[in-house]
Design brief:
about 260 residues, alpha+beta, Lipocalin, 8-stranded antiparallel beta barrel, 5 helices, disordered N terminus
């Protein structure tokens, strides 16, 4: 009984790990990818795509749907399912609409790998071709190897998942941001009534900025960090202009501008 329990537990842990990998890979795949280079049946793919009116080949992954398009032609759509437990990682695509190119419901077993902003796909010509075992498409194989790059303009930057080690720090950061934001609201009301000095406002804004920056860094939100820094630069410019105006009227010394 204990042996069976350990086996069941091991299988459960394994299934959870596989599900987490699938979720992570799915997030990494989301967005639009643009064709870079490739081969099909041992020949360069660029000329073949141009000949078929798909020179500007783009593949989009979103909510379980894969869409292929190129040069303004009709979109081909598929449903996709990832299996990161295989080696290499595999992806099954099922035809939804290819405008006569393949029957609806046709299944293809492909392999994929994601390396940063580069996606590599190896695909069989149709369901009669055995799934590829490696990233190659030699002559006579009826396989196609595609290398694509991420289209940053249409792809959101994924946020890093939070591990257990970061959970406590994340909670503290969230609490700090919430506390400073509540204090900021109170200070804003006081500033409108003329009860709060500008120096107090600047000090609190600095603390709030630091807390937000720490939170975004723990979350791994690079896009959020960039936006926050841009906002801070603009606010610092306004603060400098205010100090400069005060110095010109003799309210503060010129040393405050350094």
């Amino acid at each position: 009984m204990k042996v069976l329990l350990r086996i069941a537990l091991a299988l459960f842990v394994c299934s959870v790990a596989i599900a987490e990998d699938a979720s992570k890979h799915t997030k990494a795949l989301q967005g639009t990818w643009v064709f870079s280079h490739g081969i099909s049946n041992g020949k360069s793919l660029e000329q073949q795509l141009l000949k078929n009116g798909a020179g500007d080949l783009r593949i989009n992954f979103s909510n379980g749907v894969m869409t292929m398009s190129g040069d303004g032609g009709p979109e081909h759509t598929y449903q996709f399912t990832l299996d990161p437990a295989t080696d290499p990682n595999s992806i099954q695509i099922v035809t939804t609409e290819t405008h006569g190119k393949a029957p609806k419901g046709s299944k293809l077993r492909c392999i994929y790998k994601i390396d940063g902003n580069e996606l590599t796909l190896c695909m069989p010509a149709d369901s009669s071709v055995d799934p590829p075992k490696e990233f190659d498409a030699p002559e006579g194989s009826r396989l196609t190897l595609l290398v694509l790059t991420r289209d940053a303009a249409t792809t959101a930057v994924p946020v890093k998942s939070i591990g257990n080690d970061d959970f406590t720090a994340l909670q503290f950061a969230k609490q700090a941001v919430a506390a400073y934001e509540a204090e900021w609201s109170s200070v804003e009301e006081g500033a409108k009534a003329g009860h709060v000095a500008e120096t107090q406002i600047d000090e609190l804004r600095s603390k709030l900025y630091d807390a937000r920056l720490i939170l975004l860094r723990i979350q791994g939100d690079e896009a959020g960090i960039s936006m926050l820094m841009e906002e801070e630069v603009e606010l610092e410019k306004l603060r400098f202009e205010r100090l400069k105006a005060s110095a010109s009227h003799g309210y503060i010394g010129a040393g405050k501008l350094r």
